[in-house]
Every structure is written in C-alpha cells, then in structure tokens.
C-alpha cells in the first residue's frame, strides 16, 4: 500500500484541544439546552453519537451547536498547542514529499490561526472545514476526487469514532491516534487500518507503506 495523500482531523488529532472543547461546551451548553457530561473519562469510551445523545445534542440542535462551538473556538485558536511531538512528525512527513491536508469539523479560519501560531501552516496543501459533524465521508470523497488519488492511496488520520466511521464509509484507510479524545480501547474495537500510540509513528506508517 502506497499512500500519496495523508489527511488529518484537527481537534484532538493535531491540536491538544480536549480541555478547550470541554470549556467551550460548558459555556454554550446552557443556552442550547445541553446537559453537562460529568465523567469525561467515561465519555472517552463512548462513541460520538452516544456522547451527543447523553448531553441532549439532538439532530435538530446540531447546526446551532456547531456554529456556536466554532464561534467560541475562534477565541481559543491562537492559544491552542499541538500535541507533544506532532509538529516534529508533521515536519518529517512533509520532508518525505507526502502531500498533507486537513479535514475537520472546525472552521478553516480557526484551524489556520492555530497552525500559524504553531509554525506548521505551510506544511499543508489544503485545509477543509466541514460544517456538518457527520459529513466527513462525503468530504473525503470530494477531496480524493479533487486530488486525483485512488482509495488505496488515501489515509485519513483521526481520534474519534466518527472519523473511523467516515473513512470506512468513504472506502479509504484510517489511522486512529490514541492521544486524542477517544480511548485506545474504543478505537481498537473499531478495527482501524492503523492504530498509532505516538506521533512519531506517523512517519513510520508512511515510510512502511511507501516502501511496500
């Protein structure tokens, strides 16, 4: 398998944004009628849809929730840090000539502010903000067609169950990272193509596939 394109989720996968996201939901929750998730560790073992159901985030509320989250996230973006080791791994990946992009439910402007603040924006060929929380599969298909790569040449890297679901639905490989929101146990139970435990393994993954 020879990956030509590596596309990353942003929050939780690249950015160490879990506590920032928790704070944002606490701020926007009351006005949107959301219940607070008291046990964050328990939530990490629950699929995304189950977490949303637990806090009262119904289908009809989702557009308002996403817009409110993105607006608040803009305030946090300049201060977000990448996970330890991510910047180094991205720089090494870029040096191999692999094309990289980002597909996230966050807003493109927010993502770019964070990337620029951490000195890595130039490493990515594109950044796509997908406003629908569960619209990534369709976005992956659009990106793949636009980039002119085969399904076998595309790998999506994410930290949530919905990332794995989207990649599987779009027919591409998926690398699940254990340093983000969802627990390694939950991710492993979903049988991702690759399960990574440290950012440095991103380079090893691409090196191995490129040599295949």
Entry summary:
The chain has 212 residues and is an alpha/beta fold. The protein contains ten helices and six strands.
For the structure shown, list the relevant keywords.
single chain; 212 residues; alpha/beta; Rossmann fold; 2 domains; six-stranded parallel β-sheet; 10 helices; 6 strands; 47% helix; 13% strand; globular
| Strand-residue proportion | 5-15%
The gyration radius over C-alpha positions equals 16 Å
In the sheet with the most strands, the strands line up as 3-2-1-4-5-6
List the uncertain runs: none
CATH class of the largest domain, named: Alpha Beta
Describe this protein's structure.
With 212 residues, the chain is an alpha/beta fold. The protein is globular. It starts with a strand and ends with a helix. The longest helix is centred in the first third of the chain and has 15 residues, at 18-32. The chain has 10 helices and 6 strands. Helix 8 (161-170) links the parallel strand 4 (154-158) and strand 5. It folds into 2 domains: 5-16 and 82-211, HAD superfamily/HAD-like (Rossmann fold, 3-Layer(aba) Sandwich), CATH 3.40.50.1000; 18-78. A 6-stranded parallel sheet has the order 3-2-1-4-5-6, sandwiched between helices. It has helices spanning 18-32, 40-43, 48-54, 62-76, 86-95, 108-117, 136-147, 161-170, 184-189, 201-211; strands spanning 5-8, 99-104, 126-129, 154-158, 173-177, 194-196.
């Amino acid at each position: 398998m020879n990956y030509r394109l590596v596309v990353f989720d942003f929050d939780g996968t690249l950015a160490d944004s879990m506590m920032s996201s928790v704070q944002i939901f606490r701020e926007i929750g009351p006005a949107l009628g959301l219940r607070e998730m008291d046990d964050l560790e328990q939530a990490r073992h629950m699929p995304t849809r189950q977490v949303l159901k637990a806090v009262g985030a119904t289908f009809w509320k989702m557009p308002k929730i996403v817009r409110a989250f993105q607006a608040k996230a803009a305030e946090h973006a300049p201060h977000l840090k990448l996970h330890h080791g991510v910047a180094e791994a991205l720089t090494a990946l870029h040096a191999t000539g692999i094309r990289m992009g980002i597909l996230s439910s966050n807003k493109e402007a927010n993502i770019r502010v964070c990337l620029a603040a951490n000195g890595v924006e130039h490493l990515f060929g594109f950044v796509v903000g997908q406003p629908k929380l569960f619209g990534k599969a369709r976005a992956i298909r659009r990106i793949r067609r636009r980039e002119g790569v085969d399904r076998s040449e595309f790998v999506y890297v994410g930290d949530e169950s919905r990332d794995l679901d989207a990649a599987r639905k779009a027919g591409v490989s998926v690398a699940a990272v254990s340093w983000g929101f969802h627990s390694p146990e939950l991710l492993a139970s979903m049988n991702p193509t690759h399960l990574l435990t440290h950012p440095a393994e991103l380079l090893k993954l691409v090196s191995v596939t490129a040599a295949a």
